[in-house]
């Protein structure tokens, strides 16, 4: 058997034997691609929010308006809203700033966790508890609701712990949308700024 025949035989062996198997293989490929798409998008958005926080902290360190951070963020949010959408509030900028301050090196961010996970974790003042919960949540694939229930069970109330009171937006159960469709995840205004 020559090389071309060997490759053709190997290809035939990899093909599903029935129409149902073919359908299953295609569905599996699409689910895998969508999962990778969500993971890539999530990593990109985490990095973006981290860099926004970095810009805010660096701006502060240059001595620009350190006495009026809330005024600075409110004014900045008002100017960003027409350009990027109404989800860029002073509160969301404050969260980006807190995210950078809590994780000052980009490699410290666990890409398996979503922005919604980090918004909950940032409310925990105890750094060891925060790090432990981030590790466990990432390793065990906790949803946002699971993380929230564990935080409450540990006695860390939500949202009063830190950061000034965070307004609470509805939290998805994971980085997927509520129906498991990645498009609903990407339509989250905190993710891509869609209306």
Main sheet summary: none
- Beta-strand level of the residues, as a percent range? under 5%
- In round numbers, the mean pLDDT is 77
Strand-pairing-aware structural class: mainly alpha
Which assembly state applies to the chains in this document? single chain
Helix content: 55-70%
- Rounded Rg: 22 Å
Distance separating the two termini: 59 Å
Number of domains: 1
How many E-type strands? 0
Low-confidence stretches: 158-180, 182-195
Describe this structure as you would to a colleague.
By secondary structure, the protein is mainly alpha-helical. The protein has one domain (20-192). It has nine helices and no strands. It has helices at 3-14, 19-61, 69-84, 90-102, 115-121, 127-140, 144-153, 182-186, 189-192. Helix 2 (19-61) packs across helix 4. The longest helix is centred in the first third of the chain and has 43 residues, at 19-61. It is elongated, with a radius of gyration of 22 Å. The N and C termini lie far apart (59 Å).
Q: What is this entry, summarized?
A:
The protein has helices at residues 3-14, 19-61, 69-84, 90-102, 115-121, 127-140, 144-153, 182-186, 189-192. The protein is mostly helical and 195 residues long.
Fold topology:
Elements lengths: L2 H12 L4 H43 L7 H16 L5 H13 L12 H7 L5 H14 L3 H10 L28 H5 L2 H4 L3
Helix pairs in contact: 2-4, 3-4, 5-7
Give short descriptive properties of this protein.
195 residues, 9 helices, mainly alpha
